[in-house]
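To the wet lab folks,

You asked to see what we're planning to order before we commit. Fair enough. Below is the target structure as tokens, and below that is the sequence we designed to fit it. If anything looks off to you, flag it before the synthesis order goes out.
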């Protein structure tokens, strides 16, 4: 017992008793062929029989001490084996069921090469194990030729071990991890195969390839489903970074860990969806990456499991781990969306949603955790409340005695209050064993004695659990036309709804009345739908970093299209299914008016996805922390919809008669059908009652009005389909605007004014004489002297520069004298602080260059007033057409990239 020492009692803050094994007890390792049936061994009277399976790791192997990384799920760590024990006790025989796999892979001495195993799970009836396994490293192969992670299944009764995808070629085409069973026997897993993404690339006329996750380090691993025989693979999640650790909840929903990296890493959160790919939404954790003091911390939610009482069990994992273990917590996801943020229907709760799963004194924020570290945790479903766990207690290296010899080794001692406060004691390497916690007895029973050269990274109980239910789907199977077109629908009740607050200028009721708020007074006019672009690895296409332009934050983006926002802020439109997309709210000029909505959305074919409104992603407001993006957590919509049935909205077109509670978008689409996206910005005032007021003027910004190359294909210019996109490359579509001949001629054909951009914004005039470019802005299409991989115009527009002046036939940076705060000139000094004099003995005044700010900003068109102002109300008004300004605006809003198609960009 470890309960009598006052120096250690404080470490155990739960009523635990630890049962220690006598030194005579040892663990018997069995070879892979031995029988572990329950009849072979007599039951231990202390423990109710439950077989267990364990991933055991041999730490004596070189490279085995590397830790798993969330960001690299395909990382190979050698030295794993999968162990079965007939009962959860220390004397049960260990059987290595993977001992004979890859037996032909041996080193020069004939020793079996080490393999790797992870993501262990059981079937709901307890008859099978499923896991990820990787064959040994091939020292003669390149990185891209190494074996891949594959899904394996073990049938306990027949002792059959098989790779689920039997074909060697098919198995090698992706890194498959994190398998779990669906209720119908199919297998859900994470994979870099990106089966749906690659099919879409083919439809777009691009080669098929697996895209990199958004930090461009490894291929993105996302959720797939396959039959039990490895056939009929289907991608169901379309994140552009990793979707990992899937879990099937009792209600049939899938929970998984999503790495959100749209516009930069925002952490790993819990998401949920249906197995058919519908109803994707965040479940928990967007604003829960904080430590105990409320400061931002490297804490993420992984290794999900469900407890018998329906809570979620997760590991709190760092991106960069130096320990196998961490801490586990249970989360009340029913009532909370963040640790201290309840769902709107339970707003009286204050949290926390997270509770320690085992030991209160595990502290992963400290350099040394008093409660040790947990590597794996599995709750039993036998009604006992017991939990299996892999744990290393807190251990320290004691200081050597003053007279210690050079060959003496520091001893390892358990942590105590005294030793933790003594700086001469240092953290010892962890030592993991397997344990069983029994809450009814308050005991912690050892199942496998810790060994110096071994650790236990995963454990499961081989027992039956309730089968999940079939979840309700948001796919309308009667929408055959929508399904056949590979489309879904999004419905936003009001873009003015920010987490339950009305942010419209005059209130939604007034906004919906065109006699009160005219169309040109509405700030939100159109919804823009954008799409990510999968970035290939360097073996597929080795592009220069300059392809991304000024910033790589947004990578590359395409525009799927536009749809009008109705007067009450509602939107209902058909969008491509199985595509990661984002939304932007734009004004009448096509400029985004709010922060980027930096979360990837998706719909399944035939699905209608409804949300109340928008949210503030700034992380510094009360609104930011309110529930959003999860339908059962949000505040009810502020848009109550139509006040009655059978009559129009107040003072609107009587032909658009509403049903009670409908948004204006629902009314419009019920009568006229759900509109498709359009590549052009188009508006017609359908809501004005002609008997009451004159309809507002139409808005038409069409690509067809451009006199330069279009960013869409000819076929998409004729008919916009689910595979159409606008792809805007600066050299191909923006630069030609500056070079387009805009000369104005009189009736005799004589040029009276030349508004061609490069006529003035050029370092050479019409006679090829050197000049200072107009307003210090050069828009020529030559390679930039500052970076030859960018055009001069791009560099001038996007980067700060210095003023130039013409001196003795040369363009040189303009220099101005420097004065101190008192207005006195500042002179050059030598290293001794003495004045430096010129040839005439006069002090030399310090000069400095004059900066010129960039005219454009990659954050968007609304932050690029330096460029747009002259065209809107200044000297250049009317020189660029509305269609041209619209294309420049959307290009800036998606990130102002140099290229938005990697296959158009220069390669290394």
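Sequence we intend to order:
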């Amino acid at each position: 017992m470890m309960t009598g020492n006052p120096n250690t009692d404080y470490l155990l803050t739960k009523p635990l008793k630890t049962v220690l094994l006598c030194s005579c007890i040892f663990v018997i390792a069995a070879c892979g062929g031995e029988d572990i049936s329950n009849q072979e061994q007599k039951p231990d009277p202390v423990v109710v029989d439950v077989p267990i399976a364990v991933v055991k790791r041999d730490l004596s192997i070189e490279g085995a001490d590397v830790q798993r990384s969330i960001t690299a799920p395909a990382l190979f760590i050698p030295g794993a084996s999968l162990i079965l024990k007939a009962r959860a006790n220390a004397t049960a025989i260990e059987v290595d069921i993977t001992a004979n796999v890859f037996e032909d892979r041996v080193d020069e001495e004939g020793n079996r090469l080490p393999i790797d195993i992870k993501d262990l799970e059981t079937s709901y009836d307890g008859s099978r194990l499923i896991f990820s396994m990787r064959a040994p490293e091939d020292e003669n192969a390149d990185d891209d030729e190494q074996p891949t992670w594959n899904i394996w299944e073990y049938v306990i009764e027949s002792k059959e071990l098989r790779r689920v995808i039997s074909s060697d070629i098919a198995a090698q085409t992706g890194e498959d991890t994190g398998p779990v069973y669906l209720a119908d026997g199919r297998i859900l897993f994470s994979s870099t195969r990106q089966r749906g993404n690659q099919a879409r690339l083919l439809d777009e006329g691009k080669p098929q390839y697996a895209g990199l996750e958004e930090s461009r380090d490894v291929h993105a691993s996302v959720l797939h489903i396959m039959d039990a025989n490895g056939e009929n693979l289907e991608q169901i999640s379309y994140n552009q970074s990793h979707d990992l650790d899937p879990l099937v909840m009792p209600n049939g929903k899938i929970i998984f860990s999503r790495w959100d990296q749209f516009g930069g890493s925002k952490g790993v959160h819990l998401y949920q969806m249906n197995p058919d790919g519908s109803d994707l939404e965040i479940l928990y954790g967007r604003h829960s990456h904080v430590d105990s003091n409320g400061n931002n911390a490297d804490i993420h939610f992984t290794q999900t499991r469900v407890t018998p009482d329906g809570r979620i069990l997760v590991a709190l994992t760092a991106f960069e781990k130096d320990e196998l273990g961490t801490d586990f917590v249970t989360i009340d996801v029913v009532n909370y969306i963040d640790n201290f943020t309840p769902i709107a229907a339970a707003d009286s709760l204050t949290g926390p949603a997270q509770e320690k799963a085992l030991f209160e004194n595990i502290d992963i924020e400290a350099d040394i955790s008093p409660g040790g570290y947990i590597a794996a945790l599995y709750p039993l479903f036998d009604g006992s409340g017991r939990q299996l766990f892999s744990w290393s207690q807190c251990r320290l290296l004691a200081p050597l005695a003053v007279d210690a010899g050079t060959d003496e080794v520091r001893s390892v001692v358990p942590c105590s209050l005294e030793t933790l406060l003594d700086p001469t004691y240092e953290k010892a390497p962890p030592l993991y064993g397997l344990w069983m916690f029994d809450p009814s007895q308050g005991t912690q029973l050892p199942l496998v004695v810790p060994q110096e050269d071994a650790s236990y990274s995963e454990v499961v109980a081989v027992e039956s659990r309730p089968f999940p239910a079939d979840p309700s789907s948001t796919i309308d199977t009667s929408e055959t036309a929508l399904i056949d077109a590979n489309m879904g629908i999004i419905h936003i009740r009001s873009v003015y709804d920010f987490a339950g607050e009305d942010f419209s200028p005059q209130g939604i009721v007034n906004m919906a009345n065109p006699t009160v708020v005219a169309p040109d007074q509405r700030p939100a006019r159109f919804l823009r739908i954008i799409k990510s672009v999968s970035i290939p690895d360097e073996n597929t296409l080795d592009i220069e970093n300059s392809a991304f332009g000024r910033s790589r934050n947004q990578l590359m983006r395409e525009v799927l299209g536009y749809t009008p926002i109705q007067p009450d802020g509602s939107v209902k439109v058909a969008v491509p299914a199985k595509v990661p997309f984002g939304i932007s709210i734009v004004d009448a000029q096509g400029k985004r008016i709010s922060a980027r909505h930096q979360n990837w959305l998706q719909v399944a074919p035939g699905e209608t996805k409804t949300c109340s409104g928008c949210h503030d992603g700034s992380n510094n407001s009360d609104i930011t922390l309110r529930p959003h993006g999860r339908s059962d957590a949000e505040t009810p919509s502020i848009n109550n919809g139509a006040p009655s049935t059978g009559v129009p909205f107040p003072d609107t077109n009587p032909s658009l008669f509403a049903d009670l509670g409908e948004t204006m978008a629902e009314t419009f689409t019920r009568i006229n059908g759900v509109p498709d996206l359009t590549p052009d910005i188009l508006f017609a005032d359908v809501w004005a009652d002609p008997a009451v007021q004159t309809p507002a003027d139409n808005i038409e910004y069409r690509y067809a009005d451009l006199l330069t190359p279009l960013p869409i294909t000819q076929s998409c210019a004729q008919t916009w389909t689910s595979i159409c996109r606008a792809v805007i490359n600066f050299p191909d579509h923006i630069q030609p605007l500056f070079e387009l001949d805009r000369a104005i001629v009189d009736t005799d054909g004589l040029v009276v004014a030349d508004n061609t951009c490069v006529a003035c914004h050029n370092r050479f005039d019409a006679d090829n004489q050197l000049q200072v470019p107009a307003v210090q802005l050069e828009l020529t299409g030559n390679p930039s002297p500052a970076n030859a991989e960018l055009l001069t115009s791009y560099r001038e527009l996007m980067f700060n520069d210095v003023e130039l002046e013409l001196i003795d036939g040369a363009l040189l940076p303009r220099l101005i004298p420097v004065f101190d705060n008192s207005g006195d000139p500042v002179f050059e000094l030598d290293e001794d602080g003495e004045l430096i004099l010129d040839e005439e003995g006069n002090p030399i005044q310090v000069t400095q260059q004059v900066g010129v700010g960039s005219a454009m900003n990659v954050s968007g068109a609304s932050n690029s007033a330096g460029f747009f102002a002259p065209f809107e109300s200044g000297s250049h008004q009317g020189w660029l057409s509305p269609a041209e300004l619209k294309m420049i605006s959307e290009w800036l809003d998606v990130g102002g990239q140099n290229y938005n198609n990697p296959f158009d960009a220069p390669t290394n």
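Structural context that might help your review: Residues 480-729 form one domain. Confidence is low (pLDDT under 50) at residues 1-47.

Thanks,
Computational group
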